Structures are given as C-alpha cells and as structure tokens.
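Hi team, as promised in this morning's meeting, here are the two structures we talked about. I've kept the exact order from the run log so nobody has to guess. The first one is mostly here for context; it's the second one we should focus on when we meet again. Sequence first, then the predicted structure tokens.
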Amino acid sequence: MARILWVEKQIDYEPQGIMSMSAVLKEAGHDVALIIAAQEDPVQVAKAYQPDILGYSTMTGSQHYYFKLNRRLREALNGQSKRVLSVFGGPHPTFFPDIIHEEGVDGVCVGEGEGPIVDLANALDNGGFHPNLANWWFDVDGEIVKNPVRPLIRKLGDLPMPDRELIYNKHAPTRNSPIKHFMASRGCPYHCTYCFNHAWYKIYAREKRGYQRTIDSVIEEVNWVRERYPLEQVVFLDDLFIIYMDWLEEFAERFPKEVGLPFFCNVRSNLLTPEKVALLKKAGANTVSMGIEAGNDRLRNDLLKRKMSRETIIESGRMLHEAGINLTATNILALPTATLEDDFETMRLNAAAKVKYAHAFLFQPYPATELGEFTEQNGHMAGSFEDIGAIAWDRSILIRDEKEKNQMENLQRWFAIGVEHPWMEPVIRLLIKVPRHKFIDILYWWNHKLWKGWAITRRVHPIKITPKKIWQNAIHFLQLEA
C-alpha cells in the first residue's frame, strides 16, 4: 500500500481532480491524505503521515508557491527511511511539463491523472519506482524520461465516485455549505483563444472533444452527498452542460423525479434554443451562466473567436428571463487591443441580456493559450508570463496608457453594479478615475464583494439564510486569499 499526500494551499470549493484521483487510488488499495496549508502546519502533517508521494495540482500563477512549499516538505522528510516522490499535475504542469527541471520536482503528469497516479502508486507498492509510465515525465538522477499520453477516459461513469470525504472530513466550511459542486462531463469542442482547450487537444490529437457521464452516475453521486451532508443547491461545473440533446432530455426527465434539487450549470449562447431552455426549466435549473466576454463584435468574434452575435446573446438572455431562469455571465476586461469604451460596451451588453450577476475578470495572458501567445508576440505584455498572478481580478499586466489601465482595473470592481443599474454609468465613470491606492482598493473591493455576496446567495445560488450561515460564510470568505 502506497501513501499519497495531496497538498493544497486552501479550499474554496471541492477540487474535482484531487477527489477523483483519491477515489481511484483508494479503489486500488492505497492510502490517501490531504494537507490544507492555510489551516494547518504542512510540515507537521507530512512528518506524521510519512508519505511515499507528495502530490500537487497547480494552476498557472500558483506554481511558485507550490515549488517553495514542496522544497520545505522534502527537507523536513529527508530523515525518513524511504524516498519521497514529489509529483505535479493539473493545468500548469500539463502545458508546461518542463517544470520537471525545477528543484525538488520528481515527476510531472501530463493530461488526465487517474490512471497515471494509480500506475505510480502501484509501481512503488510492488517493490520500486520505474519511469516507463504513460503520461509521466520523470527526473531520474538528472535524466528526463518523457512518456506518451494514454487515451482519454471515455466511460466517465466507470470511474468511482469522487472521494468527497477527503475534503469534507478536513474542511468544515465546504462540508457544511448547502452549495456543493459536481461534474457531469469533461471536454469542450470550441476554440476560444483565451482557453487552454486548443492546447489540450494538441496533446490528445484525434480524441473526441467531450465525454458525458451517465445520468445514473450523476444522480447517484448527488443523492449520496445529500444523504450525508447539507445540500440545497447543486452546481455543475462542466464547460458545456447542454451540448448533447439526448443526454439533456434524459436528465430533464429523471433529475427532478430522482433528485428534485435546484441546480446551476454553464451554457453557451449559440447552443441555447427554446427547446433546451424548456428542458433546463423542467430539470430544475434556477440559474445558468454563459460567457459574454466582450461587447465589441471585433473583440468577441475575431480576437476571442467566440463566433456569436450580440443579437444571439440578447435573445438567449430574453429566453432565460421569460423562463424564470436567472442568468449570470463571465466577461473579460482590459483585453489586448481593447479600450475602456469597449469595456463599457461589454457592461451595457450584459444589461441588455438581463444578466442577474455579471462576473468581470481582468485579462491574464496565460501561456500556451492562443491569446496569451498573441499578447506576448505583439508586445502588449509588461514583463513575462512569470508575472501572472494566481487571481484574475487584481491588476492587468498589459502595456497601455496608465490612466486607462487604472480605470479598467477600477471598473472591474464596479462592473456588476453597472450591469444591475445602467443609470449609474456616469457615476461609475467618475469613480473609476480615482487613482489606485490602498484605501481606494479596500473600499472598492468591499463594494464589489458585498454586492457579489448578496447576488450569489439571493439569485445565483439561492439558499436558506440564517445568521449562523452568514457568520460562517463571512469567516470562510475572509480566510481565503484575495
């Protein structure tokens, strides 16, 4: 039996990848534990657990934190009799496996992790490490061994149920939250330039772009959670929940009868039809989210390759509004070649689409994305990809007039309120001209977060509110970085 210790900085909501990999590891007979560095001493936990494998799932922007923490943990574990392998997976290592050269990194998993992590644990359990395992890059005494990837998991329903107890037993806010997160599919067929999707399918050439779980497995998981933990609102994190009509028809027939909970899912404007809206309503969707991203047609369709008209977006919002389904939207401000007026146009398009809460992010030029490479190659970026932070709502790292950049950053904090109250646009134009400094940042941050908190709990994920829940959510929220 191998011992695998996952290391997370903090928990916002259920990390789907870690839960799935923990489930397959336990099914294979291995032992799994979790460190949440924000709430405990990771060195003490690691020394007490004595792992064979230290595992990290990292996003671009967070990798440096985990490199540093990994070195600390390895130093603390140096005295144990067995060798510890430090392995990294997730989006950043998948697209930048050259992090294998980083000090303290023994292995990098490229792509899906369930099969590779079990293979590695089995190899250690059967008498020793060997580097010829699909999906892995290994550093073996300074020699880099690069293995090809195996096919994507096609039958997602064959995977064991995600190991939620790994998270819930350790993290009370997530365990006690009435809002819990699920995945009903993997993959996306579209080619938006700000997304890693096109790079993913360079790794998995000739693979089908999207696999759905069976309705049976989805219903089983939701009901399993409801029987054991608080659950009032189901959140499906899938990129495209509505892509397959036959799946959606079966889901709409069975989910309200066998589960009967309201849910949230992601949709795409040009996939929405009156028939699909009716099925979502029948199934119990109270809120959906779609990407608007940019109001300007050139930015949305040429730069971002969203390939949808503003009329389609507005019509989608109208259909959802008339069906009584709340609409939230994602938007990207401060895009390369965009102006402040373009961002205000995006705000107005959200209002026209009757968006009930508008998320706004400052563009981050992620490496390995088409738009990230465009930004670097055309000289729009100040610094390098290493300057990208772990969050996308603090500062822009693009080169532009400092006054306009300041206003774009300030607009991010006022954007959702401007969508809700379009009459405030002249006021917002004045407010965003204030230079950024600590006091203004705190004031605007609280303004943004208070409105977001109200909208999320009353519209996006409506739950029963009690003073205790408000207090617990506030404490959890304040403990999270940014």
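And here is the second protein, the one for discussion:
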Amino acid sequence: MENQSQSIHQKWARRFFTVWTGQAFSLFGSALVQFALIWWLTQKSGSATVLAIATLAGMLPMILLGPFAGALVDRWNRRVIMIVADATIAVFTLLLAYLFATDAVQVWHVYVILAARALGSAFHFPAMSASTPLMVPEDQLTRVNGLNQTLQGINGLLAPPIGAILIGLLPTQGILLIDVGTAMLAILPLFFISIPQPKRHEDLQQKEKPSLMQDIREALTYIRSWPGLVAIIFMALFLNFLLVPTGALLPILVTKHFNKGALELGLINSAEGIGIIAGGILLSIWGGFKKKIVTSMIGIIGLGIGVMLIGLAPSSLFMVAIIGCILLGVMIPITNGPIGALLQSIIRPDIQGRVMSLLGSAATAISPLGILIAGPLSDALGIQVWFWAGGLICLLIGIAGFFIPTVMDIENNRETTIQPAVSD
C-alpha cells in the first residue's frame, strides 16, 4: 500500500471531506425517511408482520445481491456508481412522494421503494468504502472511520426526534422530499471531484475477461488464503450474531425486567447513541493505538463488559443498565473503526468492493438468524440470559484475540504481490 499512499493527493482532506459531507447529509435524510416510513406503516397497519416484511425488504437486496454488486463495483467506475446509486434512490423516493401526495400510496408500494433504496445502497456502500483508502492516507483511515461511527451515532440520536417533529409539521411526502434534496447534496460534489480507480490485478495467462462469478470466486479465494483476515471476519460475524439481538430484546428487558415504560426505553436508547458519538469523537481525535488490531480487541472486551452490565443489572438498578449502554455505545466505534480501517488498508484496492460486499452480506444475513435464536431462547431461559451470556462470550473473544498470532500479526502479513497501481 506504500505506492498507493504516495499516490494520494497532498490536499486529500479537502477532496475527501467535500464528498464525505455530501454523503453525511444524504445519510441523515435517509434516516429521516426510514423513521417516517416506519411510523406511517405502524399507523396504517398496526401490524408487527408488516413491520417485519418492511425490515426484510430493506435487508434482502444486500444479502442476495451484495456480492454481485461488489464485483461490479470493482469492474466499473466507482464515481459513476455512487452518482447513479444516489440518483436512483432519489428517483424512487420522489416517486413515493408523488404517491403520498396523490393519496394513492399502498403498503406494498412502500415495500418496493424500501427494496429499491436498499438495492442502491448495496452498490453505494462498497463503492464509497473501497474508494476511501484511495483518497485518504493510511495513517488517517482510523480517524476517518471514527468520524463515520460518530455520524452513525448522531443519525441514530437525532433522526428519531427530528423525524417526530417533522411528522407533526409536514406531510409524509414533505419529509421524502427532504431526502431527495440531501441526495442532491451528495451527488453534486461527485461531478467535480474525481474518485481514484485501482487497476485490475489480472492473471497474465488469462486471455479472456473473467465472468462475474469468477470475480466473486476470486474474492472468496483471496479471503480464504489469508488466515488472519478469515479470523477477523469470523470474529466480526460472531459478534454481530451475539449483539444485534440485544437491540431487538431491549424493549422487553426494559418493560418486563425493569418494569419501566416508553420514557425509560427512549432514555436507554439515547444513552447508547450518546456513547457512540463520544466513542467516535474519541477515536477520530486519538486515532487508536499504532497497531489497529489492539484497539479493536480492547473495544471487543469493552463491548462484552457493557452488554454484561445490562444483563446483570438488578431490576432495582436501572442506572446500571444505562451505564452499560453508554459503555456499549462508546466501544462500538472503538471496535468497528479500527477494523474498518484495517480492512481498507490491507485488502487489495481492486478487490475491496467484492470483499466488503461479501462481508456486508454475511453480516446482514446472520443478524436475523441471531434474532430468531435469541427470541425463543430468552422466552425459555429469561430475557437477561442472552445479554450476560452474549456479553461474556464477547469478553472472551476479545481476550482470546490477543493470543491468536494470525489475528495479532495481520497488519504485518500483507500480500507480498505487487499492489495494483491507482489511476486518478
């Protein structure tokens, strides 16, 4: 990656953050739309099944098409992909706004639009993620990922209350139009700022251009040939399996174990959001340890402690659960930021779209599996069991990581082949 770092323009910050700021506005607009549409579905149907189908509509494109989208991202111009993806999301959102304005909207329309938006995101995410290490110096990647985590925390904290206020002031189509406007803010800088393109790392003996399936198989082979990368990915998937269900189980924990209401549920959710923002800011300023994997392993240990605190808190000590949620929130960017920067810095640039999409598809697919297992298990053994047991396993994973050589040495065992050049 040394050649890549040298090829990054000296004024990288101005170029990158111009694009990043537009994307940040777009993500906030998307969070507002998500809140508004879920609220409309809740008011329209009052059905948990409808909300579950809506959730699946937003997940299936990533699960089913993510690997193919990643392969195409590595083949096509990434700047064009980002423009088309944002524009496609905006067009479908505009269509839904028209349906709301003409009072012709049906529940199935919302399903289709959510799936279309998710399809656009399936292309946009790997394109932006794979482009970031070509625009940002390697020693700044962890800080940039910390900012991304902060942005997620801000969206999670501010989008619901702002969305609730806007619902009282604007019709649903008005909120949808806000998202169209923020999408335009994301697209505009891309017309003036170039996104570097990595040159494909082709086999010299291969005369024909590889097929899409060959590209995906190449990514799988690339992952399997790197033991440290395989270990990191499996750790990430297992953590996702353990931690995602805690969000789904939290309302039941608050109401049945702590005997609290909606106000306390909002408070504990806000506590996690505040923690994410604090952790993201800390990471963006600090940058983590020089060895990124050390920062992430400490973050995983912190995640385990935070979740265990929530699960072990007595019913009379709700504040302990609040503290656990704050710690959990702080440790999310401390864990994810360095791992994201690590993957961006060690994975070959011309294959990043495929690898990131495969990882995203697997992580998205394993989340509902965790929820399906956690629900019945919690009903049978008690709602707290998944929290303290999952937290304990996370804690052990973080500690074990320090004793796995392939994990701790991953930053020193990069590919020995010549890295592909980067064209601007």
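Starting points for discussion:
Residues 212-414 form a domain with the Growth Hormone; Chain: A; fold (CATH 1.20.1250.20).
The mean pLDDT is 82.
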